[in-house]
Amino acid sequence: MRITEEGVEGLLRWISLDVDFKPWFEGDFELPGLAYIQGTNQEVGQRIQQILEAICTLSPTFLLNQTCLTVETRLEFPRLWGLGSSSTLIALVAEWGGVNPYKLLKSTFGGSGYDIAAAIQPGPFTYRTGNPPQVMPVRFAPPFLDQLYFVYLGQKQDSREGITRYRERQPVPETLIDQVSAITRSFLNCQDLADFEKLIREHEELVGNLLDLPRARDPLFRDFWGEIKSLGAWGGDFVLATSDRPALETQGYFNEKGFSVFLPYQKLILNDG
Description:
- The protein is an alpha+beta fold.
- The chain folds into two domains: 2-118, no CATH class; 141-268, GHMP kinase, C-terminal domain (Alpha-Beta Plaits), CATH 3.30.70.890.
- The protein contains ten helices and eleven strands.
- The chain has a five-stranded mixed beta sheet with strand order 1-5-2-3-4, covered by helices on one side. Strands 9-10-8-11 form a four-stranded antiparallel beta sheet.
- Helix 1 (42-58) runs parallel beside helix 2 (85-97), helix 2 (85-97) crosses helix 4 (114-120) and helix 6 (174-189) runs antiparallel to helix 7 (193-211).
- The longest helix is centred in the last third of the chain and has 19 residues, at 193-211.
- The chain is globular, with a radius of gyration of 21 Å.
């Protein structure tokens, strides 16, 4: 994110670039009022306006004396991959405005705040909701990291819809929360791929039953020899796949089913602990 005091007097010019440095959104906002004037996508423009106005509510002096600004953001991955571009934006503009990113999230997109922690943390962590949320750096470096892969399903999910679906099932029984937390701790301590796959099955069944949705492997990968773990908004963007077979054979399985984006775990993760 790059912010410069240049452009047209009385305007905040917003430019969003994709991974290839091509603009996918451009818009103008009034300064200091932040009214959305014009842009290439009204929905995106109104969402940015909402975020900027929320910062002003949390920090009334934000942009108070600014009369000319250009804001430029750029993605480091394809926009439709669903890797947290919205939460990363919240984290970045919260830092710019000097406000709490979790409070900013609550007043804009909503959600648990986990994605905000992911945008801020330099490596693996566990997360528990609360006020404030509990973010704990952890080590995740099992001996089978080279047998874990991310596969893009190409079915972009709306995180807000996933949040709504989850909230419709509130309150979640405390016993279920305890079960999921125990599985998380077991994931971190797991040293055997077969045990890791067993934990995936347990976690998928618990969350799938809560949301009344099928496991990610059921509609697409019933004949896969490894395990499939849903990520993010259930069953939409990426899944985690495990395999005890050679990487080329595993990739070939998914490619034959039409899924061309196949990434080894260590290629996508920033820090493996």
